[in-house]
Amino acid sequence: MVNEHSRETFNGENGERSQEFPSIQLDVLHAATNHFSDENKLGQGGFGPVYKGTLADGKEIAVKRLSETSSQGLVEFKNEIMLIAKLQHRNLVRLLGCCLEKNEKLLVYEFMPNKSLDVFLFDSKLAAQLDWQKRFNIIKGIARGILYLHEDSRLKIIHRDLKASNVLLDHEMNPKISDFGMARIFEDKNEANTNRVVGTYFGVLLLEIISGKKNNGFHHLEHGESLLTFAWKLWSKGEGMELIDQVLVPSCVASEVLKCIHIGLLCVQEDPADRPTMSSVIFMLASDSTRTLLCPSEPAFSVGRAIAKPTEPISDDGVFSVNERYWANIIGNYTANSAYERDLNSIFKEITSITKSNYGFYSNKVGEVNAMALCRAGLTFTFLVTFAISFDPYFLHSCANNIGNYTANSAYERDLNTIFKQITSITKSNYGFYSKKVGEVNAMALCRADVKLDVCTGCLNETISRVKLDCPNNKEAIGWSADCTLRYSNTNLSEKLEINPQTCLYNTGSTADEYFQLRLGELLSDLRNKAASGGALLKYAAGNSSLRASERLYALVQCTPDLSEGDCNHCLDKAATNGILRCCLKQRGCRVLSPSCNLRFETYPFVEAGAEFPPPPSPSGDRQKEEEEPNKSKRTPVLVASLSVIFGVAVVSISGFLIWKRRNNQDTEYREIQLLDLVEGRIDM
């Protein structure tokens, strides 16, 4: 059927020659997908939604409707599509054609009836359909496809998003890699030349296939380990078979399983120079022996982001950007099996067991560990699970290294683990705020107020896992995710205003004009006053206002509810002066985060529609008196005119993912690192 549609001549690579490529008419795709109806929607990818379609002759297709985030011209877009279409391999999803009509950019692929690998791999019922032989064939097929992209195709494409959901399965469960060239369409011009692509994600995927567990959602209950460190410890003790998915026990070949674990661990080593090339991986998979394989070193604690060191010292006001560690080398680290680690694990488990929303804010202390968590509200459980499985692209952390470290099996570690258990076991919403103390550990958790309880606890569970990976053994740390904030320390956190460290995320899209800034200033000023005047359980406000034409501006602000009204006002004021003004002035999208408060605004609705908040108890007693103190209230007024200049930002959604960059004027190396942060997985083998 595709051949019956019009064919368009696209310029070939380097303009040297032209070649025909099927250009499918828009009305044909409308008919095939029932006008892109929700019933035909297969899923939402990072570059846009995907729909199932059936052509008039009965042929099934998958149509990717690209978002408008590609700013390429039509000719350049056609050239890139032509290049991608030339990639032909049995382990790559085949591109059948495209449609470029009425501002639509549609890519038509062959339809994969068994959906994606993650559908089977991480489902307790469907996993049994993938016996060991099928999984081993899938591993080898993925390796062959990646080798072709890296070395055999003239494009030398680096797949920056290799994960189970991007591996599709045909009728016979043969793997076919999808989304291999999307970065070219979305103007990642350094894709083939960057020297910063990490080689971890084939190894991660390999270990996920063997274990049936998601790396990014894995949290070993006893030791708080990631899947990678858990696998390495089992392998190093000669207990590698303990990692295997139990449904594989009847069908597995032990020598093949152990060989794959060995290869996977070689691929996730911290030093890229130690990782094997993909051609070496193919050779090792085909070999009958593991005797000649090198011994892998222990994997890095974190494999989600490239970490950059700032080229300039951080300013006194504490503003920093993505992945810059304000507390690094200041607070100190804890040691393995120390009391601090145990207390931290306790807090993590407690926060991730929360069953009561508490308006999204949670605070706790166990031993020396103090923690806070703040969730964003209003997401469905399904979205939360998806969010938790793939490392939150909005996750930020700060490790306080001047406080010291806890040692393994210490009282601090036990108390921290106790707090983690308490927080992750919460069954009462408590308006999203939780404060705990066990021994020396203090912890706070704060969820965004419109987040449902299950979303909040899931966010906190993921945040705990991430903080433990990124700040191992630190007695004090903070982690910010899209829907929650978690803090822990060996010092008191309750009713204590903490403005630093402060960080921001913003989009590189269009800039805001003076009218936008004026409306934003008015909206945020109103929301700030509403949030600060909230009770002792909830200091949160969200709203929207009109811009030009049909465009609207959406925003929210939130403080930890243990703050006084004056402190909440002051914290949000600093979020503007130290955050927006210095980080993202005149941008149309921004999130400013600090330990005690945060603010966000967008040009699209991001708060769950219809979210309801039970009326919190009215402030009373000493708490009310404190909030009414005149000296405190003197700190609250902030002129709207000032805010209109300060708040110049909105986060622009790009069909499920955002491109965040640092404000700092940093060199090309920095920009490459930010480009890597665009995706959740990347590989260069």
UniProtKB/TrEMBL annotation:
Membrane topology listed for this record: Single-pass membrane protein
Residues of the Protein kinase domain: 36-294
Record-linked Gene3D superfamilies: Gnk2 domain, C-X8-C-X2-C motif, Phosphorylase Kinase, domain 1, Transferase(Phosphotransferase) domain 1
Record field: catalytic activity: L-threonyl-[protein] + ATP = O-phospho-L-threonyl-[protein] + ADP + H(+); L-seryl-[protein] + ATP = O-phospho-L-seryl-[protein] + ADP + H(+)
The protein's Enzyme Commission number: 2.7.11.1
Molecular-function annotations in GO: ATP binding; protein serine/threonine kinase activity
Region of interest (Disordered), residue spans: 610-634
Recorded superkingdom: Eukaryota
Cellular component terms per the entry's GO annotation: plasma membrane
Basic and acidic residues composition bias: residue spans: 622-632
Keyword tags: ATP-binding, Disulfide bond, Glycoprotein, Kinase, Membrane, Nucleotide-binding, Receptor, Repeat, Serine/threonine-protein kinase, Signal, Transferase, Transmembrane, Transmembrane helix
Keyword Transmembrane helix applies: yes
Entry annotated with the keyword Ion transport: no
Transmembrane segments: 638-660
PANTHER family the record matches: CYSTEINE-RICH RECEPTOR-LIKE PROTEIN KINASE 10, RECEPTOR-LIKE SERINE/THREONINE-PROTEIN KINASE SD1-8
Protein name per UniProt: non-specific serine/threonine protein kinase
